[in-house]
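Exercise (ungraded).
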Amino acid sequence: MAMLEVKNLSISFGGLRAVDGFNLKIEKGMLYGLIGPNGAGKTTVFNLLTGVYKPNEGKVMLDGKDITGKSIIDINKAGIARTFQNIRLFKELSVLDNVKAGLHNHNPYSTLTGILRLPKYYRVEKAMNEKAMEILKVFDLDGEADILASNLPYGKQRKLEIARAIATEPKLLLLDEPAAGMNPNETMELMDTIRFVREKFDATILLIEHDMKLVGGICEELTVLNFGQVLTQGKTDVVLNDPAVITAYLGE
Amino acid sequence: MKNLFKNMNKTTKSNLLTYALVIIVYIIVQIMLGTGSMSNLMKGLLVPLCVYVIAAISLNLVVGISGELSLGHAGFMCVGAYSSSFFSVLTKDALPELVRFPLAILIGAAVAAIFGILIGIPVLKLRGDYLAIVTLAFGEIIKNLMNVMYIGKDSKGLHFSATDTTALGLEEGGKVIVKGALGITGTPKNSNFTIGIILILIALFIILNLINSRSGRAIMAIRDNRIAAESVGLNITKYKLMAFTISAALAGVAGVLYAHNLSTLTVKKFDYNTSILILVFVVLGGIGNIRGSMIAAVLLTVLPEVLRGLSDYRMLIYAIVLIAMMLFNWAPAAINWRAKIKAKFKKNNAKEAE
Amino acid sequence: MSFVQFLINGISLGSVYAIIALGYTMVYGIAKMLNFAHGDVIMIGAYTVLTLLTGAGVNPWLAVLIGMVTCTVLGITIEKIAYRPLRNASSSLAVLITAIGVSYFLQNIALLIFGADTKSFINIITLPPVSLAEGQIVLTGTTTVTIIACIIIMTGLTLFVNKTKPGRAMKAVSEDRGAAQLMGVNVNATISLTFAIGSGLAAIAGVLLCSAYPSLTPYTGAMPGIKAFVAAVFGGIGSIPGAMVGGILLGIIEILGKAYISSQVADAIVFAVLIIVLLVKPTGLFGKNIQEKV
């Protein structure tokens, strides 16, 4: 069974079909890329998959379960986590607390337990701290656990966003332009991290990216979106050499 | 012992300092009272100070921690004050003070919390500015309704009216408890400074522990980025409502303390201006800084009383301080300027060190 | 009094709300902020006109004109000093709290200059009352002038926004500030212009309000200001016809509430209307739905 199966997904905004008959199948453990020119509808697909928008038509199945039209929270609980094109961290929280916010729904305790400082509070907080530090270590952020998220340099903010998403223990991780604004060195490092994250957390990853080097370097399969429709999909090297794709990117 | 303190994390230390501050102030005041070195004016301010402190820290929970502007905080105080005062007058002869007053506090908190939930459920779905105006509207509605509310009691039970006392139709010997614009008279004077301090400590305990827990983290995460918070599975409405309700309940407690310090309770004291005054405490003390709002509430209540000559300009100064603080703390230009100065300062220090 | 008379009084009061609501709705639409101090600008306008009339014996028309200029300058100054620095602040609370501070500032400065006691406003409208239906219904001069002024202002403003270049610039900035800037619209100037127009209208609203309810204190502007904001929300914030419809409906609700329910709870009714509107249709009657971009 595929980890993610999307059938005929469509949405219109004021008459414009932003995403039109979108199909996608991602096997478990795969690193999959969604590419296409600006305005092709890539982020809209993410927003449809994560429940920000409700589709007009189509079906989304995660690990065999129908999650079409569910709320953002329920979809996260079902196992999809994401990052954002324009970084959205909890700026006034520490790096550690950002990840702990991601751990929120795992092993919870009640508000009253928290206020009254019952033994369970100390037990769970300790476990949460350890788990969060473990995740931060993967992203080489453990040294900055106590500083405010807004004080991190740009590249590390991107990493922290991935760390926070990973903390929710997703089956499928969606990365929206993870390398945006990074220099080539940072991008190389990010590629290693993404590969490592897949191994370490046993995740399936779908990413939107403009950096062709990154896409070609780590994605096993690609879907190219143009004007809200699938232009082509398949193995990375085949897709990248497709003349139709080159035309879509470079124009006639 | 010293090591123990060293090993604590920063937040725990900061919280302990906050509690210690309250206790130290309490001790100093007790010594001053014992040696007779406190003026009557200051003595009269002791309970109101506790009222304002509780009001300010509870408002900070909404404004600073949850990131929503509430302009109806006085409305929640009013609800707490009226409900508890009503209860106390009603049971004045039936219950001993030791049972009655704690019950009155719980009732004030509970009624304010219920109003918090009722107003919060619809309102918290709205965007920030709308929330501000609706909480303001709520405060005004409460004020209006309390002004026309008449409640009396006779052997047949309670009678309600929205016109006047005669419309209550009380039998002979019946007693009017709530008299419209004249409010409630004869509330037992149960509040005192010690109880005020105990309530401050309880309020601090609730708020500080909430902030440093799973729920507090969720509330602040939602404040910082609503969309990201949802994407990691945080329930926006639940946590916003939680902050709002706890804040309302504590404002209710402040109202109870206030009502049981005066023999006559009217709604005049709980108007829009009071809500703004409490907001000034919060802004001046630092949005999100609980200890700061406590200190600001004390200073801004005591200073004008001590410096009577300035009283004409008091409100004007508050206004200017409010504007200046916001510009200084939030304007991007001011933030850059401060960062520059800081960097320069650091550089100079580094040079000197060489 | 008859129902029709109450209705007319409601439309008259509502017309004042509508003119004030315009200031809110335009500023909210374009600067995306709730200008809490708008109601207090009305009060300053009324004091200015009153002082000119009683202190200097200025011609009423000239007094109103000077009042408008004063408020316009005041509005532009407030925006420049207090609001503009916070336009790109990370928290939207910042500018809202600042606006509350400005409102408080205006009230207290008026308190220092003009004193706390109620001043009685001189009615400058000399139009004679008109009796209709054998004296059953009376249109006072103030009512007639208020309603006519409201219609003229609405028409003028709608034409201005749709037909002139600065008006279209205002529309563009309210749609998308960034894009407008890229297209060469001077955003700062456009926002200043919006504050100028809103504040100038506030002076007119102040005179009309005080002509109908001739007691003036430093707090006169606050409550009508808040109610006018309710009217703007009611009609759909950002919409000019919305402000007009919202204002008039609110005026009618208030007057009928006073007449048939209780004068003491009329304000509570107005605010209850706000809460219900926001629950049922948060975008108001004519408002557009705004969704945050992800």
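Further reading is listed at the end of the chapter. For now, observe: Chain A is about 40% helix and 25% strand. The longest helix of chain A spans residues 119-138.
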